[in-house]
Amino acid sequence: MVRTIELNKRQEHILQIVKDNGPITGEHIAEKLNLTRATLRPDLAILTMSGYLDARPRVGYFYTGKSGNQLLSENLKKILVRDYQSIPVVVPENVSVYDAIVTMFLEDVGTLFVVDKASRLVGVLSRKDLLRASIGKQELTTLPVNIIMTRMPNITVCRRDDLLIDAAKELIEKQIDALPIIKDADDGYELVGRLTKTNITKAFVALAEE
Amino acid sequence: MVRTIELNKRQEHILQIVKDNGPITGEHIAEKLNLTRATLRPDLAILTMSGYLDARPRVGYFYTGKSGNQLLSENLKKILVRDYQSIPVVVPENVSVYDAIVTMFLEDVGTLFVVDKASRLVGVLSRKDLLRASIGKQELTTLPVNIIMTRMPNITVCRRDDLLIDAAKELIEKQIDALPIIKDADDGYELVGRLTKTNITKAFVALAEE
């Protein structure tokens, strides 16, 4: 079970004393505050349990250097891609752009993955790619998707056991809508899932509802 | 300053005792655990400070009924739409679908908002709307966007001071990519921002990095 707590002024004060003077014994902290060791005991317990301070026998308390929200972020860092993944929707590489657009509507997804005959990932098609093609001069029913798709090695992938937060960073940094979730195979990438900003948004909502 | 802490077994045990027997005094909890009141003092302090338990003089400890991650979610509930909003990109309602698509590419956004002459929000255009139109039979350069846009009252809006988590829920429940952020005006909605799944994904990343 995990909780957030808000430190009170005395705890913040203790934290500052340990930051400035650590390692420092409980007795010395109490002296600096003109309080008894017994009075400080719950505060020191809270600061230690919450990970702000660590204590070593015969040495005293020292500051762990962790920032205020570090454990919140540590919790976030337990969420994996596999916890929020979606099923991938694929098209073969010789399908037409027109049929890819129809597939996108039928499946109601924002990204299609393109696979070769061995079912290995060879490309990614976003709504943006298909929209760009659709206002071009080429006939969509005869234009194959492998002309317009993003192809290896320009595809950013992730794996089921990656941290969701790392996948989220990739989506932001690369300015893309979805990542293929892959397994490494001898002859390339086996496609096993799809991770989108919708999945991240669902994770965000779930955090608040937990 | 806010922290998450993980309860130890004794604290979980105390919590269960209070759930089952509360309100209950510290002395009675100590009896049930065959421990002294002094030994339990830090544990009770932690459980009280973290919001699991509350204590009333001459009554004892009682369970607050808050679930494990409630305070984490309380933190999430401090984040507002205004903290992560983007600038809206607008087109007039008589612009052609073709020009809207070009605007979408030039501005590199996934959603355009349509405004009337008084700059009031009248429609929303997603990439999906424009892609659907682009494979239709109509000439894109003469088809005005107000034929294909989502229009009031079917537009889901949010306001700057709404909770980000509520906006995120709307994006998921309504299966949309972006919400217009509006201010109420006498003659309709004044458009002041744009909130997308990209913004939510950025908030998620920021939580982990705080």
Automatic annotation (TrEMBL), chains A, B:
Pfam families on file: CBS (PF00571), HTH_11 (PF08279)
Source species, domain of life: Bacteria
Domain CBS: 84-142, 149-210
SMART domains documented for this protein: CBS
Matching InterPro entries: CBS_dom, CBS_dom_sf, CBS_domain-containing, HTH_11, UCP026546_HTH-CBS, WH-like_DNA-bd_sf, WH_DNA-bd_sf
Keywords for the protein's UniProt record, in alphabetical order: CBS domain, Repeat
Protein's name according to its UniProt entry: CBS domain protein, lmo1865 homolog
Organism of provenance: Mesobacillus selenatarsenatis (strain DSM 18680 / JCM 14380 / FERM P-15431 / SF-1)
